[in-house]
Amino acid sequence: MKSLIALVAGGLFGAGLYVAMMADPDKVLAFLDLAGAWDPSLALVMVGAIAVSAVGFAVSRRMTTSLGGSSFAWPGLERPDLKLLGGAALFGVGWGMTGYCPGPGFAALAVNPAEAVYYLAAMVMGMLVWDRGLSRP
User: Is the C-alpha dihedral spanning 116, 14, 28, 39 positive or negative?
Assistant: First the structure.
């Protein structure tokens, strides 16, 4: 049952990214180009996503377990450390260079696999490098 829920949720998320044009790196790069030919249309997508997720968080805060039966693990409120800030900066630079972030990168496999596969390969390589040594103090 958990796998079916994950499959449906992932498919719905990917379809939403595609319909919202978040899997189109040219559209994303135009949104990020504040000093050039800025395209603000993705801001509406983000506002809509925040509204939907706010409802989801409000509902899930009242639940003891997820629909799949797993317990929730809410993060604590801690001060950001250098790893978090560095990771956020690296994410932003990568997003700005490629127009992809992980979710849309996978969604783009359905519409632009020749380009998306390079992004995903680089993402996996970065994860492996981090896991194999950079994450250790």
Answer: positive
Distance CA 76, CA 73 (A): 9
Q: Which of 129, 109, 126 is nearest to 117 (CA)?
A: 109
Beta-carbon contacts of 32 under 8 Å, excluding residues fewer than 6 positions away, are 95, 96, 99
Sequence-ordered alpha helix ranges (H) in 80-134? 82-98, 102-107, 113-129
Amino acid at position 56, single letter: G
Confidence of residue 134 (pLDDT cuts 50, 70, 90): low
Provide the number of structural domains found in the chain: 1
Give, as one character, the DSSP assignment of residue 74: P
Q: Is the per-residue pLDDT at 112 higher than 90?
A: no
Residues shown for the chain: 137
pLDDT per residue as tens digits for the range 66-84: 877 888 888 888 888 888 8
pLDDT at 1 over 80: no
Range of the domain at 63: 2-134
Task: Compute the distance between CA of residue 29 and CA of residue 128 in angstroms, rounded to an integer.
Answer: 27
